[in-house]
Design a protein that fits this description.
Length: 346
C-alpha cells in the first residue's frame, strides 16, 4: 500500500520521502516551522527552515539555533520533494507549508485566519489535493465581527475608563495578539504600557512593523504614572501580584473564546472582546473551498464535529491527533503561557 505523502507520527507530521518534519513536537533532525508560537516552534531540532519574517521570532524564543529562511512562494527541494511557504495570516511570519511530490500536493495550514488584519501578510489560498486544517473554532456558533468594529469598542472602553480615572489592563498572548492590539490602539487616548513579555516580543517585531510607542513597566514604575493608561499584558499576568501597581484598574481579554456566554465571568474578567487570530466557522469553510482539496485532515480543536460536517458536504474528511493547542493557550496552562512566564523579567 502506498504511504501518504505526509504521515502523522509520535514526533510530528512527517514527510518520509524528504525525511523532514512539519512543526514537530519532539526533537528531529530537520524541521520546517510554520510560525513562532510555542506549540508549533519547539526547541531541540538540529536544523530549522522557516519564512524569513519568522526567523527573528524563533531566534528570540529558542536562542542559538541553525535556521535558514525562505521567501513567500520560494520553491525549495529536498530529495525530490518540492516545498514552499505561503502566508497563513495568523501572526507575523506565519506560513502554510505546501508539499508536492510526483504531482500530488498537500498543504499544511498550521494556524490561520482569512481576515486581513492590516499588518500580518494576508492569507493566501493554495490549491492542493489534501489540506490539513486546524479546527480551533470549528463550531457554527463562532462568527467574528469585522476587526474595525472590535477596535472601536476597545478604544471606546479605554477612553471611558480613563475618564473615570481607571487603568485599563488588556490581556492578549505575547506573540501575535498583543501586537495586533497595539497596532490598532489609539495612542491619542493616552500612554500605552506593557508587561515585559509583551514588550520583549514587540521590540523584536518593531523591525518589521511600525507600532505606537510603548512604555515598559518595571519595578520602578509608579502607580500614579500608569493611572488612566492602557496596559498590555499576557494572560499569565491575570491574578498575579504584578497587577497590584495598576490599582484602580479594570480588565479585559481579547480572545475568540469571549464569544462563549459566561466565558468572561468564569475567568474573572471585567470585559471581553471577541478577537481571534484564527478562523471562525465560515472562515474555515471558505478557506477549504478555496484550496479545491477533496481530502481534508482536521487537527486541534472541534475536529470531530467539523470533520463530520465536511463529510456530510461530500469531502473525504478525517481527524488526526497533534500536540497543537490553537488559541487555547490564551486561557489554559499551555506552552504559550509558559513562554510568557519565561519572558517576564519583572
Amino acid at each position: 500500500m502506498k504511504k501518504p505523502l505526509l504521515q502523522f507520527t509520535d514526533r510530528g507530521i512527517y514527510c518520509g520521502q524528504a525525511d523532514v518534519f512539519l512543526d514537530p513536537w519532539k526533537p528531529v533532525n530537520k524541521a520546517i516551522i510554520s510560525h513562532g508560537h510555542a506549540d508549533h516552534s519547539r526547541w531541540g531540532h538540529k536544523k530549522y527552515i522557516s519564512q524569513n519574517s519568522n526567523i527573528p521570532i524563533v531566534k528570540h524564543r529558542l536562542g542559538d539555533i541553525s535556521i535558514s529562511g525562505k521567501e513567500w512562494g520560494e520553491t525549495f527541494s529536498i530529495n525530490g520533494v518540492k516545498f514552499s511557504l505561503h502566508p497563513a495570516g495568523h501572526i507575523i511570519g506565519s506560513s502554510q507549508i505546501r508539499v508536492e511530490y510526483k504531482g500530488e500536493v498537500w498543504v499544511f495550514s498550521g494556524d490561520y485566519k482569512i481576515e486581513n488584519d492590516g499588518f500580518t501578510t494576508a492569507f493566501e489560498p493554495v490549491q492542493c489535493n489534501t489540506f490539513i486544517t486546524e479546527c480551533t473554532f470549528g463550531l457554527p456558533a463562532f462568527k467574528w465581527r469585522p476587526q474595525e468594529e472590535v477596535f472601536q469598542g476597545i478604544n471606546s472602553w479605554w477612553a471611558q475608563n480613563r475618564a473615570e480615572g481607571l487603568t485599563s489592563v488588556l490581556f492578549g498572548y505575547s506573540l501575535g495578539k498583543a501586537q495586533r492590539l497595539l497596532k490598532f490602539l489609539d495612542p491619542g487616548i493616552g500612554p500605552i504600557y506593557t508587561h515585559a513579555a509583551v514588550e520583549n516580543m514587540t521590540e523584536v517585531l518593531r523591525q518589521q512593523v511600525d507600532f505606537p510607542e510603548t512604555n515598559l513597566i518595571t519595578r520602578d514604575t509608579k502607580t500614579q504614572e500608569i493611572k488612566g493608561s492602557l496596559v498590555l499584558a499576557p494572560p499569565s499576568a491575570h491574578g498575579s501580584t504584578w497587577l497590584k501597581r495598576m490599582v484602580p484598574y479594570v480588565t479585559a481579554t481579547a480572545s475568540g473564546w469571549m464569544a462563549f456566554r459566561g466565558a468572561r465571568r468564569r475567568r474573572a474578567i471585567d470585559k471581553g472582546f471577541v478577537l481571534s487570530d484564527h478562523c471562525d466557522w465560515d472562515g474555515l469553510l471558505q478557506a477549504i473551498d478555496a484550496t479545491g482539496a477533496n481530502q481534508i485532515i482536521c487537527t486541534h480543536g472541534y475536529t470531530d464535529i467539523f470533520s463530520r460536517f465536511l463529510r456530510e458536504k461530500g469531502f473525504d474528511a478525517r481527524t488526526e491527533a497533534t500536540l497543537y493547542e490553537g488559541e487555547s493557550g490564551e486561557v489554559n496552562s499551555s506552552a504559550e503561557q509558559q513562554q510568557d512566564k519565561l519572558e517576564n523579567a519583572e
